[in-house]
Heme chaperone HemW (Brevibacterium linens), 409 residues
Amino acid sequence: MPAQPTGEVPPRDGSLPKSAGIGASERGLSLYVHVPYCRVRCGYCDFNTYTADDLGPGASRDDYRGNLARELDLSVSTLAEAGAGDREVSTIFFGGGTPTLLAADVLAGVMDDIRARFPLADNVEVTTEANPDTLDPEYIATLAGAGFNRISMGMQSAVPHVLATLDRTHDPEKIPEVARWVKDAGLELSLDLIYGTPGESIDDWRRSLDVALSNEVDHISAYSLIVEPGTKMGAMVRRGELPMPDEDDLADKYEIADAAISAAGMHWYEVSNWSTGPETRCEHNMAYWRNADWWGFGPGAHSHVGGVRFWNAKHPRAWADRLLAEESPSIGREVLDDQTREIERIMLAARIDRELRLDSLAPGSQQAIKTFIKQGLLDADGAEAGWFQPTLQGRLMADYMVRILTEFV
């Protein structure tokens, strides 16, 4: 797992500086709930996860809801004291780990606990990540009854040998059945895919796309495999047991994905995300990309309120112990300066279709914009209308363009 970022030590009660409340009424508020439990730890994953049966009393799945309720109480008082409370929650996202390793009535209960403390918008988006092998019709119906309206399912691939390399345990043949259960319950369906796994051929990737798009899917996320240090896969690559993903292969597979997904009637709205329309975008992720306010609950979760970024103790035991002691689980924070906030605004908005206004960039950026258009990285019509709108090649070169644009900040 990656190390926590460095930062200042926050007060033990987790109180925020008054600056966090400035302009809060004009910003959205989202909630992220981190569920750290997994059945097995995938070899490529460096998220803050733990196999579900390895955690003892106080930090186990049985203790999770009670511990989370303590952090919910803390968040309400902390936001109110900073002048950032009394706002409707627009999105809620349960991530992990595998949230659906918790019993369905536990996830439903957490939603009850949230409603008891926060006002929710009438059109609140409530998403949970899920592995296909943790779902059945009864489980999904319980979630729907509790207010969940979106499931983001970790499909990753439809090819058994690719799933085996990723240490994914679900049966790919079950994907269409689970997808049908989700849609029959009236929930939106997003499928998560990974491309570039060692040993994955172009035909393998096309098959995964074909299977994903053969379902009544509302949203697709497709991410290139990143081999992280400290993971099982990272060690295997370092020892030469697996090859490092090839950049040209990754680019080819991205172009194949965009062509197939676009042909199915979906449109990209962020470099790695496609939806059937604006109404099926992941609004929770849009909140992140727009630097809105969000509170992250659970072990290792990160939060951002009014330019203050803070993060919880990573291990479920340490997180629970601090809450039981009536202390904040937050162990570090960073108050972002104006330059850092502007760099992050550009870095995030440049990856989104028609999100970054050209007239919001520093004057010195204009020559770079003209160069990007000549290089075929930006859409000329979009630029004429005042928008930073990457072409297909521009999406592949998004980091390059951001690096140049942020030099003017």
Observations:
- Residues 133 and 320 are 28 Å apart (CA to CA).
- The chain has two domains: 18-289, 339-409.
- The mean pLDDT is 94.
- The longest strand covers residues 120-130.
